[in-house]
Amino acid sequence: MTATKQAYDTLVHETGGWVASQLEACTRCGMCAEACHFYQATGNPEYSPVWKVELLRRAYEQRFTLVGGFKKMIGLEKEITDEDLKHWSELNYYACTVCNKCSMVCPMGIDLGSLLHGVRAGLAAAEVVPDDLMAAVNKQVEEGSPLGMTDSVWDQRLEWIADEWEEDIPRDVQGADTMVVFSSIEVMKFPTNVAAIAKILNKAGEKWTVSSKAREIVNFGFYQGDEKNTKMFLDRVLEGARDLGVKRIVVTECGHAYDALRWHGANWLPEANDFEIIHITGVLGELVGNGRIKLKPGAFDGNGTITFHDACKIQRKGGHIQEPRDILKVIAPNSFKEMTPNREEAICCGGGGGVIAIKAADPQRYAAFGLKIDQVNSVGAKTVTMTCSNCRLQFTDGVEHFKLDWKVTGLAQMVADSLVE
Amino acid sequence: MPEETVHKQLQGKGVSRRDFLKLSGLLATAMGLTAVPPLEESGLPASMGVRAQASKMVARALETAQRLPVIWLNFQDCTGCTEAISRSVSPSLTNLVLNTLTIEYHETLSAASGFQVEEAKQQAMAKYAGQYVLVVEGSIPLANDGAYCVIGGRTAIDILKEAAAGAAAIIAVGSCASFGGLPKADPNPTDAKGVWELITDKPVVNIPGCPAIPEATAGTIAHFAIFGALPELDGLHRPMTFYGKTVHDRCLRRPFYEAGKFALSFDDEGAKQGWCLYKLGCKGPTTYSACATIKWDQGLSFPVQSGHPCLGCTEPNFWDGGGFYQGQSAPLNRPAAAAVGAAVGAGAALGIGTALVNNAKKKAKGEEK
Amino acid sequence: MNPQAMLEFARGPFFYASLLFMIFGLAYRLFTVISLGWSKDRVPDKGSKAGGVVMSFLKGILIWPFIPWVKNTFNRNPLIYIGGGLFHLALFVVIILGTPHMLVWKSLTGLHWATLPLPIVDWMAAVGIIAMILLLINRRINPVLKLISGPAEFLSWLFVFLPMVTGYMMTHHLWLPYENLYALHMLSVDVMMIWIPLSRISHFIFYFFARAIHGAEFGKRGVAV
Predict the structure, then answer these.
(1) CA distance linking residue B123 with residue B104, whole number of Å
(2) Using an 8 Å Cβ cutoff, are A186 and A252 in contact?
(3) Looking at the domain assignment, is residue C89 inside a domain?
(4) CATH class, range A305-417
(5) What angle do CA A246, A247, A249 make, to 5 degrees?
(6) How many Å apart are CA B164 and CA B169, to the nearest integer?
């Protein structure tokens, strides 16, 4: 029963006024289910967001409210059991990307994403996080990266990328303005993205650097829901930035990392406010906007329809909605076509929130990707671009799994390819 | 001479056959005789039940019915009901009751007074034991052994019980006799009661109203006189004929209610236009009375027509039913600001207390980790 | 107890007690939540939190009741949108713009306003009742709602449905005498008022919290919500 005690303690600890007032507002109308891509794809009612936060609700009502206590006394409410924890672990880690689409449809406006994070915290404290995800977390704790990007691997990869694409990647430059922290997904799987970002920043004449200390932006502690790990990984980034004395930290194409560092970082580590934290999409918008880089108009026209996938953490939860569109309207004015729904209402790729790292969650993940396939096909797009490499990983994998003929690319790469020399 | 039939009595007064039949028709209408009353109780030939015309039945009944002795008692009242009936100029009905039926005893109307009239009452009660109709006006106080209403050295309850014992039927006229009336209003110092709360072994008809509509009083007495039986009653022992519909149902301002046109004060445009008085506290919707159809002063008007909301005076406890000018749907009393404040305060205190305990739990658990 | 006495009880002492209990209970609920502690948000804003809150409420007020079909989840379950929307609209029309109910507010608060003609209110009441029945059926057959509904949800439905249906019967003088229905209506209202602070019907208070938090969260991220 220690697991349940840990879970209760953490769930209760998570429940301040913010969480409690939102739990109280729920009318159990079930609308959130209709927004959830996992529910839509599978029809499993247990995947409805309201049911995923059930543990948090139970802990709150049983421990904090008179009515809940009374209901427990007469047997209407059940204590959380070990089995429950295992069950909800599957619901929350296999079938939830914490994409927060559900909060868009909640009639009460409940910010379900933050509640779902609370549930993950409880599950993490009870140590019922799926093995695959836990292995990745442990790897990040020990090696500094969940994808096995150790110091030497990082060093070699960056050197190789710099050579291969003939782009300068400044390292550990003291006093640089901008520190760019790549995600291991990009470094290991989408090296073109790293090269593209390097090319853009060099072209713009930005005084930038990467840090050997802050070499991994991905934050698997945030996926896991564990505060200690999340802070540890954030601290590594901030330490790197502090050592180099930079003004701003640029998060590259990784959604969760951006969410953790930009929108939660300062609440865990107040020193995060010493730096301006911005996503690469924001930087692209800024550079194009003030003319520091010039794009070839129509560079991507003529190769079939291009569509843009809104990432949950960068567009809906990050606010970088307009920049990609402004850029695409320049480089692909005729072939860029929006999917519906889009922008902050977009449907999530289905691989975020650590889901893609869990092998056992493949069926759910592929099912959810089915919605994305329909969306892309309905605009007849041949190319899908995005600003999140986790989404890109999911798309690449999905394209392969479903044998689709789309090209999957990243926005930074498109910008780099259409720069006016 | 109560043994004389009603018809003979009228003939003696020079009423022609033609006028007599007209009167019968009027009576039938006034009593609301749309259906033929039970023949067995009326003692009329069974053949009359077939396709009987109400007016003919009344005529036939008047020809055979004996004059009816009536004893009229006044207790805690204002004599308003007597006033209403004696001043009523309704030519047929009330006239019939007052002049043709024999009122053997009536404190206000009797010419005699004091011991003589009490004596007469005793005689009448003895003579017509089991036959007379007892009409009661005013409520009966029970507090302090009935000391609040004493007539000739005897308490109201005592007088009532004595008179009720020999009555064929009892008709409680007015809201006081029916339901206790204004004397019963909170805090009811005299412990006033209506007749039907006290007399349970005799048929009691209630004719509530403040005052009771004279036609309703007279019609009910006439019904008993003519048919020897009481009319059909509702759950509150009121004759269905007069109390079957609400004032609201028959109100001339009803269309304005449906259309949502309301007077908001007594002198606004709505009031001048004759719009519905619901928002001025009219109790018409829950008030069962023939007020809106029979009206007053030969059908001249009734309160709502004259511009005043119905007070609901035919309903029990109307005197304690909230303000007269407060909407009828409104709760009877509203919590004082202090009570609301206390409720909020208690809730807040308990809530903050619970939250403190919860925060302590949170903290303890946080440290444990 | 005869209907008249029951009515007086339900309009008088019982109403009084229920109302005070409701006020007490809601104050309790509100203060437990408010006093639970609000961690400070130290994250710098990208957009405007206040703007987000305003937008959030505007959307809540304008989109949900009037143009729900712009939500892309509308097609997936229009019944909840339409049924839920009409129910709330009916509730608003009946208890705010219905003359008898306005007089209740007037007697409690002293404020009064113009009301709608009875037939309009009456039709809205019928719509509300039908919507509630549909929503109940939906709750019994929709897999998600089946999963998340316990006795409390059905009791909440019942305690709201009873006042509506007795109120409707009362207006139309159906089956029982008017004051009997009035008494039943008031009794059911009293029971509902006791139930409100014990149940999720109290969402009408926490709605403002949730909407504001949602608006602030999206506003600070610079996302039009």
Answers:
(1) 9
(2) yes
(3) yes
(4) alpha beta
(5) 80
(6) 8
Q: Which CATH architecture does the domain made up of A2-128 adopt?
A: Orthogonal Bundle (1.10)
The dihedrals phi and psi of B227, each to the nearest 5 degrees, come to: -105, -10
Can the peptide bond before residue B187 be classed as cis, meaning omega within 30 degrees of 0?
yes
Tell me: the pLDDT tens digits for B116-146? 888 888 988 998 888 888 999 999 999 999 9
Domains observed in chain B: 66-242 (3.40.50.700), 245-357 (4.10.480.10)
Contacts of C64 in chain A (CB under 8 A): 107
Whether C104 sits inside 8 A of B350 (CB atoms) is no
Report which residue type is found at A250. V
CATH of A132-287, picked from 3.10.50, 1.20.1050, 1.10.3470, 3.30.310, is: 1.20.1050
Listing from the earlier edge strand, what are the strands of the sheet with A336-337? A336-337, A305-309, A381-386, A407-410
Q: Which of C36, C106, C121, C169 to mutate to test the interface with B (most CBs of B within 10 A)?
A: C36
Residue C17 distance to chain B (closest CA, Å): 9
- Looking at this predicted complex, what is its ipTM? 0.86
Give the pLDDT confidence of A169-223 residue by residue, as tens digits: 998 889 889 999 999 888 888 899 999 999 999 988 889 999 988 888 888 989 8
> Distance (Å, rounded) from C-alpha A12 to C-alpha A64?
8
Per-residue DSSP letters for A277-341?
EEEHHHHHHHHHHTTSS-B-TTTTTTSSEEEEEPPIIIIITT---HHHHHHHHHH-TTTEE--SS
Polymer length of chain A:
421
Cα of A16 to nearest chain B Cα, Å: 9
CA–CA–CA angle C101, C107, C110 (5° rounding): 110
Residues in C 32-51 with any Cβ partner in A closer than 8 A: 32-39, 41-44, 46-47
Read off the pTM: 0.80
Nearest to A154 by CA among A204, A199, A218, A230: A218
Instruction: Looking at the complex, report in whole angstroms how far the Cα of residue B179 sits from the nearest Cα belonging to chain C.
Output: 12
Q: Do the Cβ atoms of A30 and C209 come within 8 Å? A: no
Residue intervals of chain A classified under CATH 3.40.50 are 305-417
